[in-house]
Design brief:
Number of domains: 2
Strand content: under 5%
Helix content: 55-70%
Order of helices and strands: HHHHHHH
Largest sheet: none
Structural class: mainly alpha
Distance between the termini: 31 Å
């Protein structure tokens, strides 16, 4: 996918261009000419913007554990005050609704991008359904089974009259090669 302008990226995420510029300032990768590579940017947002939510959950669990470990009647030390600015991306900051919404939008855009890439690969024949693969394998195995089972009835009469072991070997080798060549040239029914 080609890099896009910040304004196009902002429209795709349904956020302001200013918000995209803020994320670039926070470290979101851009190309040398300032454009946004969508997969890289979405991965960065998922890794950095959503981290505050994970840190918040870990902080609450740690606080509960400290309270449970404290002797009865003792008060637990107050938790450190997190940076409440909406752009705080440091561990220990509380998640704000804008950050959570942006993270959700980025995840949705990443899912849509991956879905579009899959559909494109399907359209070009690069990807096929599992059921199609199973059907192809079943046809191939059935074809091989039929060829191998028919060897006995085809070779039996010819081998019964042959007294030379080398000639018997040559007949069997030829039949096996013929069956293998047919398997190699197997064409999937479209």
């Amino acid at each position: 996918m080609n890099p896009i302008l910040k304004s196009e990226f902002a429209a795709r995420l349904k956020v302001s261009k200013t918000r995209v510029s803020q994320m670039v300032g926070m470290g979101m990768p851009t190309t040398a000419d300032g454009k946004i590579n969508v997969p890289d940017a979405l991965a960065w947002i998922e890794a950095h913007i959503d981290s505050s939510h994970k840190d918040s959950v870990a902080r609450r669990v740690a606080a509960r554990a400290a309270e449970a470990a404290a002797p009865p009647g003792a008060s637990a030390p107050p938790p450190p005050q997190p940076d409440m600015s909406p752009l705080a991306a440091t561990p220990g900051s509380l998640p704000d609704p804008a950050r959570i919404l942006l993270s959700a939008k980025a995840k949705r855009a990443l899912v849509e991008l991956r879905r579009a890439e899959r559909e494109e690969r399907k359209a070009t024949g690069e990807l096929i359904e599992v059921a199609e693969v199973a059907q192809i394998i079943e046809e191939l195995v059935t074809n091989a089974k039929t060829r191998l089972l028919s060897m006995g009835s085809r070779l039996g009469p010819r081998l019964a009259v042959e007294h030379d072991a080398a000639q018997c070997t040559a007949l069997i080798d030829a039949a096996v090669r013929e069956a293998l060549e047919e398997l190699v040239s197997f064409q999937v029914a479209a």
